[in-house]
Amino acid sequence: MSQQPIQNFYKDDVAICYGCGKHNADGLHIKTFWDGEIGRSTFTPRPEHTAFPGFVYGGLIASLIDCHSIGTAIAAAYDAAGRAPGTDPEITCVTGNLNVSYLKPTPMGVELVLEARIKEMGERKIVVTCSVYAQDVETVRAETVAVRVPSRMFKKEAD
Amino acid sequence: MSQQPIQNFYKDDVAICYGCGKHNADGLHIKTFWDGEIGRSTFTPRPEHTAFPGFVYGGLIASLIDCHSIGTAIAAAYDAAGRAPGTDPEITCVTGNLNVSYLKPTPMGVELVLEARIKEMGERKIVVTCSVYAQDVETVRAETVAVRVPSRMFKKEAD
Question: What is the pLDDT of residues B58-79, one digit of tens each?
C-alpha cells in the first residue's frame, strides 16, 4: 500500500479539483491509495449529503467514484511505466465516461469504502471498475473510462 | 412550460436531497421545468466547483444530470398519467443507472443549460437522455435509468 494518496502528487497548479484537489478548501478531499492491484479510498458523507432520509446522495457517490477511479488510473499508469508517482513526464487523465449502477440505497452514518481495479490499461484509455461498500455490502458498482492527456492545464478553445 | 419546478412538488418529508431538495439548506437546489416534451434546468457552478483551472468538476455535472433527469422522469410520468404533479398517489423515482459521457471540458464562469428528454417511458423504468450546454456548445451527454418506487421514504434493510 502506498504511504501517500496519489492526489498528493498532482501538480500544485492544477490541484484545485472539488472532488480531490489538495488546494480546494471547500472540496471533498477524496484520497486514493494504490497497492499495485487495488485502489482504495474511504469517505464518510457529511450530514448534508443525503438523497432522502437515511440514505446517501447518488451525485456524491458518483463524485467519489469519479475522482477515485481517475486517481487509480493515474497511480496504475505510473506503476505500469515503472516510475514513482509524480515523476516527470507527468501522467494524468481526465474522465471520458462515467457509468454508475446504483444496486441498492447507500446508508448514511457509516464510512464508505471504495475499491477500484484496472480492467484495461491502454496507451490512450484506461478502464477502471469501482465498487462502493457500506458495512461490507456493495451498494454501487461503476465503470469509468479515464482518458490520458498531456496535462490538466487545458487552454480554453477561445484562447 | 410549467410555472413551478417539479421539485416543488416533492413531498416535504423527503425533500432533503443534496442535489435538489428544497429543504436541504446546503444543497444545490437543482430545478427542473417540464414543458411536455423537454425538461430544462440551468445552473451556474460556484467558484469551488472546479476540476482544474477554468473548467467545471465532472462530479458536479453528474449531480446536475442525476437530479434533473429524475425530475424530468417524474414530471413526464405525471403528464403521461394525465395528472397534475404532486397529486396522489405520488409518482416518484430513484436512479438505477447514470451513464455520463464528457465530450469536452465544460468552462467555468457561464450558466450551464441542461435539456432532458424521455427516451423510454416504462411502467417500472423511465430512460432519460440529457445534454449539458455551455454557451450553446454541448459538452456532456448522458443517459439515466429512473426506477419507479412507491415512495422515497425507504426503510433500512435492518429495520
Answer: 999 999 999 999 999 999 999 9
CA distances from B148 to B70, B77, B116 (A): 10, 10, 18
Residue A105 to residue B94, Cβ atoms within 8 A? yes
Closest CB from A62, A102, A105 relative to B63: A62
Q: Is A159 inside a domain boundary?
A: no
Give the minimum alpha-carbon distance from A27 to chain B in angstroms, rounded to a whole number. Answer: 7
Q: Report the alpha-carbon distance of residue A2 to residue A86 in Å, rounded.
A: 13
Cell numbers given for B20? 435538489
The shortest C-alpha distance from B50 to chain A (Å) reads 5
For chain B, the first-to-last Cα distance in angstroms comes to 42
Sequence length of chain A is 159
Show pLDDT as tens, one digit a residue, over chain A (159 residues): 558 999 999 999 889 999 999 999 999 999 999 999 999 999 999 999 999 999 999 999 999 999 999 999 999 999 999 999 999 999 999 999 999 999 999 999 999 999 999 999 999 999 999 999 999 999 999 999 999 998 776 665 443
Q: Which residues of B touch A101 (CB under 8 A)?
A: 96-97
Centre a 10 Å sphere on the Cβ of residue A32 and count the other Cβ atoms it contains.
Answer: 24
Provide the domain count of chain B: 1
Q: How many other C-beta atoms can be found within 10 angstroms of the C-beta atom of residue B152?
A: 21
Evaluate whether residue B116 is within a structural domain.
yes
Domain span at residue A137?
A: 6-153
**Which CATH number belongs to the domain containing residue B104 in this structure?**
3.10.129.10
